[in-house]
Amino acid sequence: MIKLIKLMIGSALLALSLALLIICLEKKNPEKTAAWLSFLALNPLLGMMIYLVFGCTPLKKSLFRSKHMPGEQLPALAHQQKQAFSENEIYIQESIDAKGLSRLLLGKAFAPLSRNNSLTLLHNGDAKFAALLEDLEKAQDHIHMEYYIFHDDAIGRRVQQILIRKAGEGIKIRLMFDGLGSRSLAKNFLRELRAAGIELQWFLPLRFPRAFLTLNYRNHRKLVVIDGRIGYLGGINIGDEYLSRSAKYGFWRDTHLRLEGTSVHTIQETFFNDWYYLTGEIHRDPRYFPKEREDGEMLVQIIGGGPDSHYESIKELFFTMLSTAQKEIVVTTPYFIPDESMIMALKTAASRGVAVKIILQGKPDHKLPYLASSSYFRDLIPSGVEIYRYQKGILHSKVLTVDKEIGVVGSANFDIRSFQIDFELSAVIFGSDFAEKLVRDQEQDLQDSLQITQQDLQSRTPLLSFQIALARLLSPLL
After folding, report:
1. For 55-83, what is each residue's pLDDT tens digit?
2. Sheet holding 355-361, edge to edge
3. Is the pLDDT of residue 11 over 70?
4. What's the CA gap between 156 and 376, in Å, rounded?
5. Predicted local confidence at residue 224, as pLDDT
6. What's the first-to-final CA gap in the chain, in angstroms?
7. CB-CB contact of 345 with 319 (8 Å)
8. Does position 371 have pLDDT exceeding 60, yes or no?
9. Annotated active-site positions, please?
10. With pLDDT > 70 as the criterion, what percentage of the chain qualifies?
């Protein structure tokens, strides 16, 4: 009996010590702190182990302190443009709000603004892969690819065979796979690529014991650069499911971009920064950054986010867009786990009379995020925010439009993971012509969705309410 009492006292002291540690380490994020303390109360030892793997902020800073390539060009170029802004010597956007957003991205995300761009909106996997395969076949100098998920399936093999053939023609090819998302790639698939002279790198591979420190930090980007002139980014990985060929998932709704112009240089710089982190190699050959040419007149800023950033640049982008919207906000995202500041921005916009619509998955590919997103409905819907669940298939598109004037397309979801933990890449496009294309896609998605009503919230069963609450508690791990 005495041993049991001592054990209980020891566990209580351990829990108290660990709780104080978490409070000190996470003092800037009360909501996150509360979630981790709840875990700790349930099981002190297990809770602390999970926290060290999935939530320790100081660990994040130490892992990525030296990630950026020496002589990185983006901060210097962004600083020059920021000065030009103050002197009114930079491109004129369609509104003062758009100009203010550009200034924010220059200062916080080192995201240069480029003017001579042309963009193609790629609706779903069929459009993305039709364009990508054609561009890969036409490559003349180099191909760089960076993907969270790359599968060894029909489309994965087709891309692989093109790359092997192009490598045989003398094209320089570098591939980067995320250690978790692409973990299923077979050894012979990789061996065939290496045998062709293609350079491969794993971003934070699952190698123990280091995986305990790096498991939570994923490279969620999906980017391609071809000859320094053509770029791709968006939500579509390499896999048959993105072509709606999966019996499990069925129809797959997604959005991607094909870019030409100076904005591709920023995508290239992002790739080389990640490559430097893995290899220590610095690439500055002019072949990778060809001279500018007139590819179009679209204003674009490419914004990267991740745990290596001093600021939560993706979150600040979204927050600013929500806060300055005048007429309409439409958010399309598969995973919706915002923090309190983003919830307040959405509610405040709706209270100001802005039409706020959020399109989420109706059929989930991952159950926990789906349930966790439902926990926010009781707070948002009474404030006038309209929430819809997509019914046609799996919704994986990540798009934000404001006032039919500014659009964002990329890999970032509207969740804490994309804001703080994962490496992401998105394009901010200024101009009503392209924004209206995005809005038309969103309007079609709304047609294929069902709106969540107050009656739906009231009809939740006790079991479903418990599952939603538990998923909300687990959201720091999602």
Report:
1. 555 556 667 766 666 666 777 666 666 66
2. 113-114, 299-305, 424-430, 406-410, 399-402, 328-332, 355-361, 386-390, 449-451
3. no
4. 37
5. 98
6. 40
7. yes
8. yes
9. 220, 222, 227, 396, 398, 403
10. 79
- Which residues make Cβ contacts (< 8 Å) with residue 426, sequence separation at least 6? 233, 302, 303, 305, 314, 317, 398, 408, 409, 410, 411, 412
CA pair distance 16, 22, nearest whole angstrom: 10
HEC readout, 125-147: HHHHHHHHHHHHHCCCCEEEEEE
How many C-beta neighbours within 10 Å does residue 5 have? 9
242-278: pLDDT as tens digits: 999 999 999 999 999 999 999 999 999 999 999 999 9
Q: Which two tokens stand for residue 284?
A: 């500055």
CB atoms closer than 10 angstroms to residue 472: 19
Q: Say if residue 450's pLDDT is above 90.
A: yes
Angstrom distance (rounded) from CA 223 to CA 410: 10
Say how far apart CA 245 and CA 111 lie, in whole Å.
Answer: 36
Q: Would you call the peptide bond into 209 cis, given omega within 30 degrees of 0 as the criterion?
A: yes
What residues are paired with 172 via a beta bridge?
142
Amino acid code (one letter) for 291: K
Q: Distance from CA of residue 106 to its chain's centroid?
A: 19
What distance in Å separates the CA atoms of residue 465 and residue 400, rounded to the nearest whole number?
A: 29
Q: Which two tokens stand for residue 438?
A: 């995005």
Burial 34-71 (b: 16+ CB within 10 A, else e): ebbbebbeeebeebbebbebbbbeebbeebbeebbbee
Q: Which pLDDT band holds residue 426 (cuts at 50, 70, 90)?
A: very high
Residue 153: phi, psi to the nearest 5? -135, -160
Yes or no: say if 135 and 109 are a contact pair by the CB < 8 Å rule.
no
Contacts of 221 (CB under 8 A, 6+ apart): 146, 147, 148, 233, 270, 274, 304, 411, 423, 424, 425
Amino acid 214: pLDDT: 79
Measured from the Cβ of residue 463, the count of other Cβ atoms closer than 10 Å reads 8
| The residue count for the chain | 478
Q: Nearest 5°: phi and psi at 388?
A: -125, 145
